[in-house]
Amino acid sequence: MTLDRILLTVQQAFDENPNPVRPDDAILKLLSLTLYKNDFEFNGQFYLQLCGVAMGRKYAPSTANLYLKELDHAAMYRCHIHPSYTPDSLMISLAYGPALSPNYSPSKNS
What we know:
The protein is α+β, with helices and mostly antiparallel strands. It contains 3 helices and 4 strands; from the N terminus they run H-H-E-E-H-E-E. A two-stranded antiparallel ribbon has the order 1-2. Strands 3-4 form a two-stranded antiparallel sheet. Strand 1 and strand 2 form a beta hairpin. Helix 1 (3-16) runs antiparallel to helix 2 (24-36).
């Protein structure tokens, strides 16, 4: 997920869930600072992370959930894909056939 996309999804979540007490601008500025200035050392070399959230950031799961919200919506309402979650993974199974039936089998109906 690009850094701009992370900030956009958080901004959209703020817009969809307004809270007059929450300091949205300050939160977005701090989030931007921690995303764009995330440098680290590995094997004696310094790197600047350009994509995604660093492991261990407290907000990493929340930003991932916000990003996946759009995927969930698209999957369930546009593509007939039904996501199901298990701890630390996302499994997507395609819906086959005209109706989702527990008795449907692609091999029987091919």
